């Protein structure tokens, strides 16, 4: 089968920086058995092409991106016809995919993976904030032959808009992020917490730091490792200093997987404080190495709670702190949640993701 995969980015030629691990895992698997052409909208400012994970990546660049991408897909289609076009993320990738598919008379799949269905005015986040965004998303999602999303809350949000969607979690590549069963924590040392997410308004590190203040106030001795690109210009580091947390927090910035792995394995609890999630992959990555997650009740964290994760209302630092303290105080509970999370992540790994999408491809192209 010949497949055009449209993505916003996440496919840097380095294969290590400016990449999305779950996306690379999918590309790697699809390219093994299909002729896969990846169209990256804005991976780099200038247009270019490179090989990655067995697929050919065509980077469209920053100018006239949508029209140029549709044109490129049509050109490659004339060389050898695509059977299907798949967009990871709705928004611009989805618009390109459904428009090109309509022109070429082939099916389209759109995977909703971000803020396409969201409106958070307080942080100016979400495609539903503007009439243009609302119109575009409605048009894309109703024009797609098949819509998918990773979590129950996203499927429900789509259903509320009259869009029937199939759940396809984006899983961990177990070939490159090997499973490790949960292990007992070393209670002789201070508790080790980890947070893996870009520093931005959606991931809500303000709530994360307030959670740590509450946790400290309850008498828990801990250290927190925060891993992720800083898009807030040092705001969180300054807040940590203001809150008296500087000695307990290490800001690592972005780390490639090979450097993240030992930190993750050495952690007792993953903490996620997001206002919105479609996934997130960090939940799966922590689970695969035996680390349970305490987070806000969004995306798959809500799906997994209360057995494979502990969830608190968005913005509720008190509830987050209580959940963390509960896991650290009761090792049997922590291990119980960790084992359930491990089983969930293994059952939804990257092989399962690729198989689910391939089943959709087969179904749509057989019609």
Structural description of this entry:
There is one protein chain. This protein has about 375 residues and is α/β, with parallel strands linked by helices. It folds into two domains: about 190 residues, 3-Layer(aba) Sandwich (Rossmann fold), CATH 3.40.50; about 160 residues, Glycogen Phosphorylase B (Rossmann fold). Helix content is about 40%, strand content about 20%. The chain contains 13 helices and 14 strands. An eight-stranded mixed β-sheet has the order 3-4-2-1-5-6-7-8, sandwiched between helices. Strands 11-10-9-12-13-14 form a six-stranded parallel β-sheet, with helices on both faces. Helix 9 links the parallel strand 12 and strand 13. Helix 1 packs across helix 13, helix 3 packs across helix 4 and helix 11 crosses helix 12. The model has no long low-confidence stretch (mean pLDDT about 95).
